[in-house]
Amino acid sequence: MAKHRLYGQSIIWSQDFDAELLEEIFDRADNYKKYPRNEVLKEKRVIMLFHEESTRTRFSFEAAVDDLGGTRISTEDAKRFSSFAKGESFEHSIRVISNYGDAIVLRHSDDDAAMVARDMLQSEGIWKPIFNAGCGGQKGQHPSQSGLDWYTISREVGRTHDLNILIGGDPKHGRTIRSLIYLAGKYPGNRIHLVNPLELSVGRDMLAYGHRHGLEFTQGTDLREYIADVDVIYMTRIQKERFENPDEYERVKGSCRLTIELAQRMKPGAIIMHPLPIVDEIDTEVERLPQAAYFRQSDNGVPIRKALLEMVLGE
Ligand code: NCD
Q1: How far apart are alpha carbons 161 and 154 in whole angstroms?
Q2: Known catalytic residue: 56?
Q3: Tens digits of residue pLDDT in 144-193
Q4: Is the shortest distance between the CB of 4 and ligand 1 below 6 Å?
């Protein structure tokens, strides 16, 4: 097998993907749904270094490595269960850990952690790819999540362009939202409706990016305004842990909810997405609707991560 152009590269920002590359990732994911196992990671070891909580991202990366014949070392709470807790610097732990495997899958609370890790290793002459598995908040990103999000949109709605996408919840802190919007700008004609309490508005840099890439934005505070017209609704959790002041969270909590009554007003072919975990922002009854795609979306995490691992590490 020839090495892919992503071979040895880190996946840091969703802008690292372009439309052509995404199509190739999606095709490989289709193939992994049919043929889940192979040996492309034979003799490769992948390190899962998670400084923040994770269920889906870590488990799906781990399942993907196992199914591709690789091995892995994992720490689920590096803040407590690594020398980081004793005060070791991030740079030192990355430098040391990189020696134990062929790539690092990293989750961290700093927006730039994955980039810092890659650049620091490269400055030492160490060429080990870093996968950003969700780093940061306000300027953070989660590129593998945006890969599986756009794969879900592509396969469920049938196109990735000229879409009306409603994003609800917490665009200020949501790294999955930022990565999703960056990819929306890679396709023509997409319109993004942001619905959130005013305090949780998306950063101005995202609006500027949108304008540069032909994305149309509208902003509002009421899901009812757009619900009947959208092709995709992407709901998110209000991220309590990222508020500096707990009173501010109390003011906005529960303010953006997709109720069953609202969900029933959606178009038949539209889909309801969520990166998960859902706290209380979607009524449980919504799960029964055919438009509820969030569990199928989450299932797509394994084949998409297999496609990425294969391209980056497969010989
Ligand atoms: C998200 C994250 O960690 O950014 N979860 C995920 O990886 N699917 C979203 C969240 O925590 O709300």
Answers
A1: 9
A2: yes
A3: 999 999 999 999 999 999 999 999 999 999 999 999 999 999 999 999 99
A4: no
